[in-house]
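Sorry, explain these tokens?

***
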Amino acid sequence: MRNRAKIDATIRNARAAVELDRPLDDLLWSFAPTPGRPRPATIGEVPATTPESTAMAKELKRRGFTFVGPTTCYALMQATGMVDDHLADCWLASC
């Protein structure tokens, strides 16, 4: 990584995580949407942000995190399995 702002943000975010009054995973999972959300039919229906990811970004910023926005938070939710955006006809959707 060569972007100085991102390097500084990584350090700042690590400090913010250490200073949390609860475990980071508990904080993040508290923003998970309720199960039962319908699967998207097309890639165009997969959102870039949701109200939950917007709330997560706002709370993380309030707690001192930087370089976290709704789109980044939604990508985190996808990567960690908090949301499942497999298309309805995806073979994984039946698992």
